[in-house]
Amino acid sequence: CYLDGIIENTLKWGPYYLIAPGIALPHARPEQGANHNQISVTTLATPVAFGNADCDPIWLLLCASATDAEAHIRTIQRISQWLDSPESVAMLQDAPNDAALFAQLTALR
């Protein structure tokens, strides 16, 4: 299953998916069990430390799944480029509720 792929990769390479302060993008390769192209969004009421001083603590998990290499790379690139902007990250942090956060993320399409 795809989750097992993420866990396996994390055990092998550490938290390779920490992409910005407070934000993680857990993902695995398409051949590790991806069934659909999708992203799940999880906000953590209590942020979690992953052991990375540059990114800890993590408050937002964007779990990405892609069924082929092209979609996998395109999804990760689009999210990474968008989150490269401090203004974009601030918009996510300042979202008053999960619905507003989701609206910000769906604007990435």
TrEMBL record:
Keywords: Cytoplasm, Kinase, Phosphotransferase system, Sugar transport, Transferase, Transport
Gene Ontology CC terms, in alphabetical order: cytoplasm
Keyword Cytoplasm set for record: yes
Source species, domain of life: Bacteria
GO molecular function: kinase activity
Annotated GO biological process: phosphoenolpyruvate-dependent sugar phosphotransferase system
Subcellular location: Cytoplasm
Keyword Protease: no
PTS EIIA type-2 domain ranges (all copies): 1-108
Protein's recorded name: PTS sugar transporter subunit IIA
